[in-house]
From TrEMBL:
<comment type="similarity">
    <text>Belongs to the complex I subunit 5 family.</text>
</comment>
<feature type="transmembrane region" description="Helical">
    <location>
        <begin position="149"/>
        <end position="169"/>
    </location>
</feature>
<feature type="domain" description="NADH:quinone oxidoreductase/Mrp antiporter transmembrane">
    <location>
        <begin position="104"/>
        <end position="372"/>
    </location>
</feature>
<dbReference type="GO" id="GO:0003954">
    <property type="term" value="F:NADH dehydrogenase activity"/>
</dbReference>
<feature type="transmembrane region" description="Helical">
    <location>
        <begin position="301"/>
        <end position="321"/>
    </location>
</feature>
<keyword id="KW-1278">Translocase</keyword>
<feature type="transmembrane region" description="Helical">
    <location>
        <begin position="110"/>
        <end position="128"/>
    </location>
</feature>
<dbReference type="Pfam" id="PF00361">
    <property type="entry name" value="Proton_antipo_M"/>
</dbReference>
<feature type="transmembrane region" description="Helical">
    <location>
        <begin position="87"/>
        <end position="104"/>
    </location>
</feature>
<feature type="transmembrane region" description="Helical">
    <location>
        <begin position="54"/>
        <end position="75"/>
    </location>
</feature>
<feature type="transmembrane region" description="Helical">
    <location>
        <begin position="269"/>
        <end position="295"/>
    </location>
</feature>
<feature type="transmembrane region" description="Helical">
    <location>
        <begin position="411"/>
        <end position="432"/>
    </location>
</feature>
<keyword id="KW-0999">Mitochondrion inner membrane</keyword>
<feature type="transmembrane region" description="Helical">
    <location>
        <begin position="181"/>
        <end position="199"/>
    </location>
</feature>
<dbReference type="InterPro" id="IPR010934">
    <property type="entry name" value="NADH_DH_su5_C"/>
</dbReference>
<feature type="transmembrane region" description="Helical">
    <location>
        <begin position="333"/>
        <end position="357"/>
    </location>
</feature>
<feature type="transmembrane region" description="Helical">
    <location>
        <begin position="211"/>
        <end position="231"/>
    </location>
</feature>
Amino acid sequence: MSLCLVYFLGFLLLSLLSFFMSLNFMSLDYMMILEIEMVSVNSSSVVMSVLLDWMSLLFASFVLFISSMVIFYSLEYMGGDLMINRFILLVVMFVASMLLLIFSPNLISILLGWDGLGLVSYCLVIYYQNVKSFNAGMLTALTNRLGDVAFLMSIAWMLNFGSWNYYFFLDFMKGSLEMEVIVFLMLLAGMTKSAQIPFSSWLPAAMAAPTPVSSLVHSSTLVTAGVYLLIRFNFCMGENLKIILLFVASLTMFMAGLGASYEYDLKKIIALSTLSQLGLMMSILAMGGYILAFYHLLTHALFKALLFMCAGAMIHGLGNCQDIRFMGGLVKLMPLTCVFFIICNLSLCGLPFLAGFYSKDLILEVVSMDNLGLYTYLIYFLSTGLTVSYTFRLIFYVLSGDYNYFSLQGISDLGLIMLKGMGGIILLVIFMGSSLSWMILSTPYFICLPLLMKMMTLVVTLAGGWLGFELAQLVLSYKSKSLEFIWSSMFFGSMWNTPYISTFGVNFYPLHEGEKIYELMDQGWSEYLGSQNFYYSLSMWSKFLQIFHSKNLKIFLSLVVMWIIILVFLII
């Protein structure tokens, strides 16, 4: 109890300090790199570098604020856990790794934070120890290891520069072969951490972790680490890499939206919405709008953290049930939590004047202005429509209708500590979007578009809401039993089969093929033509020779007779 409160207050104070420092740095257009000498032996020194600018300080303040609220929320959510102090310390290690990554201009210290996130996330995903958690944890850890390999290779490539402080080389090494290779490796690392195609399957699997961890992971840590890293490296990203990133990120955004429309697990729906928003951030970053990507990163962190907290309160009240088909009518039972839930969902959809609207609408209008072709335009607006679709489907299942679970239930809004933790974020979800736009965008964007294109965001939002409602109704009807619907839900609901490819594709099928080859070759043809055949031939020859040895006198006389006959014939 006391440990939770200590970290809650500490993180809250540090968050406020970091926020006001960020405002100061922003107004002065100021940046500072501190170099702290850790060890010095003879003339060799190990230096720890810290990068302080408005971006790192502002992001750190959001990370600290959300983690403080999550720790306070965990006080009640994890109250029945005998090892709650261990859980809190794991969360603190997680946040510390993220802060190390945010403040580092040095690839070595970033790797420490990067690997710290991977390791602690594994410990948190397997926190509830069962087979499902172990599998999910292993998938998470191994997918992230691919990014770590790319990171290590980029560290080796930076030996060409004589220093690992990437910040010094972003400008004047731009365009060189070394920097292009390093940025490509960073892109690969960022794609694994931020779960872009084909590394998407670990993100929904990581939902095996406790809900406060999901709230932290999906808002401001782990999955956003890849986006933040690419924002830092965006200055020297070549055009070809940007096109690849745009294509992959837009596909991820579309795939996640489709997957969430067929999903029934409450936490997985919200996880897939995170994946969709990560695709949005990555794709606008690929178009050169790194400030817009960072702006959406911050607004998304707020409403996504609260969305998971609301989901956690519902799951907590329902006795750990996560299937939305068992919910329904919760607005009557826990009204305040449901109000928070609706506000966050509407912010995710981009309802005007909530936090998500300011960044999302701006991104869509910037995309409308860019001359990028029909594919990008269509997939952006389709994905936006799908976001509204699965959100309204979720609201329909969870809040409306009748309560579908046990009649003996204790679900209510009486969890005061959880409500206070959620109440700490709700004001920011409502007001922080406009505040951030005044802070980050020094000159307001004025986007002049034709009326139809200007209204397109509103049109796809309304169409998506209608589609979500119709989808929810369809599943309740007889048509959902049709074979076409079942096949489409199996394909789209499983994220275009990426989980099968990531697990069976790299594990089961190679082992299965290896077993077949072992049977055919090692114990088949190679055995028949190799050692067994050799043994068979030798044994036959030895048996033949044994006949000679067992009847040696007869054979000797016979051979002498044969030899004489041959000589006679030769002489004649």
